[in-house]
Specification:
Number of helices: 4
Protein name: Neuronal membrane glycoprotein M6-a
Strand content: under 5%
Low-confidence stretches: none
Transmembrane segments: 6-28, 49-73, 136-164
Mean pLDDT: 76
Number of domains: 1
Subunit structure: Interacts with OPRM1. Interacts with palmitoyltransferase ZDHHC17/HIP14; the interaction leads to palmitoylation of GPM6A.
Number of strands: 2
Radius of gyration: 32 Å
Family: Belongs to the myelin proteolipid protein family.
Structural class: mainly alpha
Helix content: over 70%
InterPro entries: Myelin_PLP (IPR001614), Myelin_PLP_CS (IPR018237)
Distance between the termini: 99 Å
Largest sheet: 2 strands, antiparallel
Length: 201
């Protein structure tokens, strides 16, 4: 449990740092888009950094999707236990059982049932740890789901931002080429006008 606790602390700290990096990158990219229609020139490094963050966020989103699926199993299991405990207090003398094989915790060959007739089950139902653990698993599931939703939202925003930067870069190149061609046409026109004026005089 101590190792698992330190792993959770490490993951939380790493994602805090990663969130700050994403926020800083978002500020720089948004400022770049605002300035791109002026004298700003987007660099290849900026586009590479955005593409790298898109790929990294996508991998982290898949990992958190797995964490969400993993934390949903204990919530389902504890909900069934909580329901059995509640029903056991309502219906006197009922022997309700929970088969652990349906959760994949034990193999199909082993028969591991937890029944309300046992004294340990009654103690477990009366203890505060069951409710506390159930609520903590719900909070963990909600947190993992919120992380997945945040990463999906950030992926949409970052992908749109990257597409805007790419299109604006192409537009900037087009505007540069167009202004050069107009300048060349203007130079040719002014040269011909001077030649005609010289020939006329």
């Amino acid at each position: 449990i101590d190792i698992f606790k330190y792993v959770i602390y490490g993951v939380a700290a790493a994602f805090f740092v990663y969130g700050i990096l994403l926020m800083v990158e978002g500020f720089f990219t948004t400022g770049a888009i605002k300035d791109l229609y002026g004298d700003f020139k987007i660099t290849t490094c900026g586009r590479c950094v955005s593409a790298w963050f898109i790929m990294l966020t996508y991998i982290f989103m898949l990992a958190w999707l797995g964490v969400t699926a993993f934390t949903s199993l204990p919530v389902y299991m504890y909900f069934n236990l909580w329901t059995i405990c509640r029903n056991a207090t309502i219906v006197d003398g009922a022997n309700l059982c929970l088969d652990l094989r349906q959760y994949g915790i034990v193999t199909v060959g082993e028969e591991k049932k937890v029944c309300t007739s046992s004294e340990s089950f009654i103690k477990m139902c009366d203890s505060n740890e069951l409710n506390m653990t159930f609520h903590l698993f719900i909070v963990a599931l909600a947190g993992a789901g919120a992380a997945v939703i945040a990463m999906v939202h950030y992926l949409m925003v970052l992908s749109a931002n990257w597409a805007y930067v790419k299109d604006a870069c192409r537009m900037q190149k087009y505007e540069d080429i167009k202004s050069k061609e107009e300048q060349e046409l203007h130079d040719i026109h002014s040269t011909r006008s001077k030649e005609r004026l010289n020939a006329y005089t």
